[in-house]
């Protein structure tokens, strides 16, 4: 998934990003509310991990504007305030989940994954198509019962193709979801990853190229 982490404590932000990237997500960073709104305006995020106490634009206002924009991103709000009233306020602003600091990274990662499954339309916890079984929580892929070892990027690309349910996914969409904002749109990264994915999934070929359009799982 594509995730935006908005946190002004840079060491914490980097640690969250590193953990989520290890979970195969593409992660962008913003260290204040204004930068977060700029990224949200131009990128399509599945989940926004949003610190509440932000400089320039408060996290509450970021959440309000994100909800008002009617984008599909889910919001996991982070805060040091653990009182019930604070949690209620955060959720009333439109946040989908609320996590107090300090937190355990595995719990944060699990909550991000759960929110991603609640995207529109909802994504099942385990994806199955054309003999492929993909489990995002365990980061495991099987084809016809055979375990398929994939790199993080190969797993992320396959997950997007599986989520599409047979619909065509363009190279641009794959770049948007599986790579972060620093990806060069003119590289052959998507094509190379698809080639490696096909080789690892084996015969008969299951990832189909639709010329001039994109890729799909037949």
TrEMBL record:
GO molecular-function terms, A-Z: phosphorelay response regulator activity; transcription cis-regulatory region binding
Bilayer-spanning residue ranges: none
Listed GO CC annotations: cytosol; protein-DNA complex
Modification sites for 4-aspartylphosphate: 51
DNA-binding region: 124-218
SMART domains on file: REC (SM00448), Trans_reg_C (SM00862)
Domain OmpR/PhoB-type, residue spans: 124-218
Domain Response regulatory, first and last residues per copy: 2-116
Classification lineage: Bacteria, Bacillati, Actinomycetota, Actinomycetes, Streptosporangiales
Protein name: DNA-binding response regulator, OmpR family, contains REC and winged-helix (WHTH) domain
Xref: PROSITE patterns: OMPR_PHOB, RESPONSE_REGULATORY
Keyword field: DNA-binding, Phosphoprotein
């Amino acid at each position: 998934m594509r995730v935006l982490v908005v946190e002004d404590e840079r060491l914490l932000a980097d640690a969250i990003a590193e953990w989520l990237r290890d979970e195969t997500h593409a992660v962008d960073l913003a260290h204040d509310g204004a930068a977060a709104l700029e990224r949200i305006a131009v990128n399509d995020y599945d989940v926004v991990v949003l610190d509440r106490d932000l400089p320039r634009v408060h996290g509450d206002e970021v959440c309000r504007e994100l909800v008002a924009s009617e984008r599909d991103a889910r919001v996991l709000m982070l805060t040091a305030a653990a009182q019930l009233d604070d949690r209620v306020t955060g959720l009333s602003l439109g946040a989908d989940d609320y996590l107090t600091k300090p937190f355990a990274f595995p719990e944060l990662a699990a909550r991000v994954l759960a929110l991603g499954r609640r995207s529109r339309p909802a994504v099942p916890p385990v994806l199955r198509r054309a003999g492929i079984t993909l489990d995002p929580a365990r980061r495991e892929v099987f084809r016809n019962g055979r375990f398929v070892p994939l790199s993080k990027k190969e797993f992320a690309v396959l997950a997007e193709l599986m989520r599409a349910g047979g619909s065509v996914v363009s190279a641009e969409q794959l770049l948007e979801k599986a790579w972060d904002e620093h990806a060069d749109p003119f590289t052959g990264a998507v094509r190379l990853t698809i080639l490696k994915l096909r080789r690892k999934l084996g015969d008969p070929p299951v990832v189909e190229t639709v010329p001039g359009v994109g890729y799909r799982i037949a």
